[in-house]
């Protein structure tokens, strides 16, 4: 694993990049939840699944988290930083499909930026449909994605259960927003979905 610092217009981002032993068959770029923590089990699991299929995998810690803040800034700063980091990684690893995604808030960022990043697919781990105590719903962010989408959602997630977008699917697993209860099913779902993207 290689740790990179990538300068963006909104400050430096940190990237943990894992390359396969041979030429990468594709690139998976994932962002964290709102806290900015890139060591969550579901993110690491997704990276291992991608590596097992010969893809490179990158975990992106956004500038606000690198700076020690635990709450994303308002506006488009995080989207812009994720787009810039993804572009840099893609220029380095141009072969195969580009898959973007993330956990919770990171999945929202990947949905909103899927067109500008040129993503071939989006993986959302625990998509935060709406805050447990109210609105607004973020369904529009998910529904607007035009490339294939995989959403892995805990059956008792307090953030709710989104509707699948036209080009996507939702895999419901045991547990809540943490996605800690059913790693085998999560691994199988991500692997099957990535296999389909790699076969195109």
From TrEMBL:
Query: What range(s) does the KANL3/Tex30 alpha/beta hydrolase-like domain occupy?
Result: 67-180
> Cross-referenced InterPro entries, in alphabetical order?
AB_hydrolase_fold, KANL3/Tex30_Abhydrolase, NSL3/Tex30
Tell me the domain of life. Answer: Bacteria
PANTHER family, A to Z: TESTIS DEVELOPMENT PROTEIN PRTD, TESTIS-EXPRESSED PROTEIN 30
Name of the molecule in the record = KANL3/Tex30 alpha/beta hydrolase-like domain-containing protein
State the organism of origin. Answer: Tessaracoccus flavescens
Q: What is the lineage of its organism?
A: Bacteria, Bacillati, Actinomycetota, Actinomycetes, Propionibacteriales
